[in-house]
Structure formats: structure tokens, C-alpha cells
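Structure request: PDCL2 protein, Probosciger aterrimus.
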Amino acid sequence: DPNEDTEWNDILRQFGILPPKENPKDEIEEMVLRLQNEAEVKPYEKMNLKELEEAEDDFDEADREAIEKYRQQRLQEWKCLQRRQKYGELREICGEQYVKEVTNAPEDVWVIIHLYRSSIPMCSLVNKHLSLLARKFPEVKFLKAVVNSCIQNYHDSCLPTLLVYKTGEIKGRFIGITQCGGIYLKVEELEQKLAEAGAIETDLEENPKKGIVNMILPVQNIPGCEAINTKSSDVMKPHIT
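Returned structure:
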């Protein structure tokens, strides 16, 4: 064994036949180096906002200036995270909440609302997909509402109805089974549709069905899907014409 500590190996090392024996690192030296490296990291860099506030008096003036910059950075990161995680679920609303939740939503928020009827299987499929997408895109407000609570006498042939809002205006609409993607709609296809409407940023490849299922006809050209006038108190109905 060339690494064995014997007189013969020492003689061979003297004649250059074996390489010099490596000296084992001193454990104390290693510990000192580790402590020095840890000391180079300021303690406030490991603190959250609350801990920074509590420990502020323990730092000198130079540290306080660095802490303030660090605090602002952490605060911006926190605000960004809060904005991105503001929603994260498919919520049910009724017609009376339509104006508040949809048309009067914050200007920087995309709103996707599904008008549905629980007796229609395609509506159930869309709600299932929207629930998954709501978790994937928590910065977007995903809503659903029973259609009769928003528009009276809305024809079943127009369901599912998906409306995409931004700044109180409809930016995209998918009306009926065909426009929503068909009875075999996959969640990836729905994600691509909403991305093409501008509501979400997807990393999926372009939808191969884009030219077929994403055509959007004017509502007045779809039999039975006109926006019906309702009683004066029904101010929440969406204007989709």
C-alpha cells in the first residue's frame, strides 16, 4: 500500500518513487475556515421582515443602511408573491355579485367566468378543468356562476359559456360545446384557449386545433344565444353581444 506509513515507503518517497505523503487537514483549521466563511454572511440576510424589525437596534449605522435596502427588497418580493397567490381556486358567485367580482375587478386582474348549468355534462368537465387551471395560475381570478342567476332564459345550446374579462371589458368568449373545445376537451386545450385570449401565460406548445375550435362567432349569429332583457333589478347580466 503506497499510502501505508512504513519505513520502506518513506525510503521510496525520498527517492521520488512514491509521491509525498498528504498531510491530513487539521480539524481545528477546517473549523476556523468554516466559521470565517459563515461570518462573511451578514446575520440579517437570513432574517425575515419581523426578525429584522426586532433586531434593528443591534446593528451599526452601515448595517442599518444595508438592512433598509434588504428590507425593501424582501417587501417587494413578498408583495409580488401575494399578488401571484391572490386567488388560486375556482369560486362560485351568483348574479348579484357579477358587477363587483367581474366588471369591477382590479384593472390589472384577468377574470375568467364560466356560465354553466350543472345538468350539462360539458359544463361539469369545464369546471373540472378550470379548477386545475385556477391552482396553476393563482394570479388570475377564476369564477363560475349558474347561468340563470345572471341571464334569464339563456339557451342550453349556448352552454358552456366562457367569458374572459380585463378592465371590465370582454376580451374573449367561447360559447357552446364546439367553441369550448368539444366533449373530449383536455385541460391543456382549455389552457391554450385562455392563453390565446390573453388571460394567462402558458408554456404549452401551440394548440393544433387552433384553426378549428377557436373560431368565435358573434352571439347574434348563434340561435337562442341572444342576451335577453330581464327585469330592471337584474343589472348583473353580462352583455355578451
